Every structure is written in structure tokens, then in C-alpha cells.
């Protein structure tokens, strides 16, 4: 069994990294939103934070928000804010997760079912 | 391995959407083990913050309090088809974590609730919450530990007070095929809910 389940990160650090905002500016970015950098070699403005740089570099290829957060060792909520910024700046494309309102369609469920059976 | 680059960090560029399943259960019940058995990536660990307005005893000073807790969760991934990735999120079932998985449940396929029959009462909370407070479909997977007494399905249904349609399966979370079977049971059940008029099985 793994003890130490409750990881504690300094709220002050999170606050500073995200420039005082506690959550993403838009709620379109979810934990499983897929992220991909646009033109990753194009330089970012000089004022861009190290964490924004790191996230953009991490997303040179397709990766979900939660994976990027895990590899960067930052809280998901913080990386959500960073990703929103980069999407706003046109540097990151987000492929949205399944929308809550419309939900899952039967085709997708069947695809998941077939995929699991194939692995079996 | 089905996908040649399964050892890699990144998803194929063809993937357009992600779907998720929650793996819930008491401490030590096998959530991380199950995720590890089926994931194509080494299970990852991250944290999510939960903010709650605190109520009750401590507002003597008249101030609004908010408590923020961070909770570790682990997750794995299966690239289920060229266009879809499946994420499995493991989260503890105790009441104080409900906010976490209420957030995770948005748009989710459903939840697999892992049960250790030696500690059935550890799962009452999570089952109650799922039935009464969410509309997320779920299935129950009973993990067998070496000293587990083999209860009949009927006994377990009664002890857990499950609704008649809730699927219940045996599972060894250490075994890939067995873990996949438990997930298949859940997804098949959810598809059935979407097409209730379909009577073939
Ligand atoms: N016999 C048996 N052992 C299992 C099974 N699943 C997990 N275990 C063992 O039980 C222990 C706990 O499993 P974990 O996967 O860490 O449980 P968890 O639910 O992630 O635990 P926490 O994250 O601490 O809440 C490990 O030693 C596993 O090897 C199972 O299906 N059968
Ligand atoms: Mg665990």
C-alpha cells in the first residue's frame, strides 16, 4: 500500500506561476483535453514564463493535459491555466474532451468496447 | 503489443478524442494495480486541488472560509483506436474525495468500483454516493485476495445493496485479461443503457 497519498504543493507557488489566477480563463480545457503545440520552434515573447515554455515543449507532440501535468510535476489545475494562456496566444491547439452536455455517443462507446476486446 | 509505439510517451497524431473511466474504491483495494495491468504507459501520478467552502463550527469570526486540499490520483492510458484514447483515473472512494471524482465524472463513460470482500463496509460510502448523488453508471468488480471467502453473487448483491441491473464481476487486478474483462463489462453495460430497446445479448 502506498502511504503519503496526500501530496501537498505550496499554494503560494501555484499562485505565482499562474500570475494570480486560480483557474483557467475558459472552462473548455479539461483534465483529458488533448494538447498539441502550433509551430513549436517559433520563439515565444520574452516575458513568457519558464512554465509556459516547458508546457509548450512538452506538447511538441500530442499529449493530454493530465499527462503533461504529471511529467512537468505541476498540479493539473496550474497546467490548465498555462494551457489556456497558450491556446489564447495561438500557440497550442486543444482537442476537446467529450462535452458534458452531449455526452458520449454510441459509436464512441462501441469503439471503446471493440478496442478493449481486441486487447483481450 | 498492438501499438508499436506503446512504450512511448506521446499519442499518435491521429487521435482526436479522449474518453475516461473512473476506477474507484477503498484504500488498498487494487486501483493502481488494475490501471497498471492494462495501461500502455507506466501509470502516472498527479494531483488535483479540491476547493470547498467550509461549513459549521469554525465560522465564529464571521469570515468565509475555503479549504483547499490536494489529492493524488493515478491514471493510465489505452490508445483504443486510431482516433480515440481511453484514460483510466484511479481515485479513493472516501467521502472527502467526492468532489474530486464528481469533477472527473463529467463526460466519463462510467466508473468501476473495486471491492475487497474482507472490508465490504469500506465500499458503502462510494456506492451510496454513486447511486444517490450522480447519474454516472457503474459496475462492481470484486477483487479476490488470498484469504477471501468466496461469497456467492447473490450474497454480495444483498450485502452491498446493489440495484438489480448493476453488473458485478470477479476480478484479479494483477491480471491484464481479468482487468480488461471488468472494463468490458462496464462499457457493455453503459452501451446497453444507451440502447434500452436492444434485447439481444
Ligand atoms: N490477490 C490480489 N491482490 C491484489 C489485487 N489487486 C491488488 N492486489 C494487491 O493489493 C495491494 C494494494 O493494491 P493497490 O493497487 O496499491 O491498491 P490501491 O487501491 O491503488 O491502493 P491506494 O492507492 O493506497 O488506495 C498490492 O499489494 C497489490 O498487489 C487482486 O485483485 N488480487
Ligand atoms: Mg493506488
What this model shows, in words?
- The complex is a heterodimer of chains A (120) and B (201).
- Chain A has a 3-stranded antiparallel β-sheet with strand order 2-1-3.
- Chain A is mainly alpha-helical and 120 residues long.
- Chain A has 5 helices and 3 strands, in the order αβαβααβα.
- Chain A has one domain (3-118).
- The two termini of chain A are 27 Å apart.
- Chain B has 5 helices and 7 strands.
- The two termini of chain B are 29 Å apart.
- In chain B, α1 (31-38) packs across α5.
- In chain B, a hairpin with a 2-residue loop joins β3 and β4.
- A 7-stranded mixed β-sheet of chain B has the order 2-3-4-1-5-6-7, sandwiched between helices.
- Chain B is globular and about 50 Å long.
- With 201 residues, chain B is of the alpha/beta class.
- Chain B has a single domain (17-194), classed as Rossmann fold, CATH 3.40.50.
- The chains are: A mainly alpha (120), B alpha/beta (201).
- Chains A and B meet through β2, α3 and α5 of A and β1, β2, β3, β4 and α5 of B.
- Magnesium ion is lined by residues 31-32, 74, 90 of chain B.
Q: Identify low-pLDDT runs of chain B.
A: 1-7, 55-60
DSSP, total strands of chain B: 7
Largest sheet data of chain B? 7 strands, mixed
User: How far is it from the N-terminal to the C-terminal residue of chain B, by CA?
Assistant: 29 Å
Helix fraction of chain A, binned, reads: 40-55%
Could you name the CATH class of chain B?
Alpha Beta
Indicate the percent of residues in helices of chain B. Answer: 25-40%
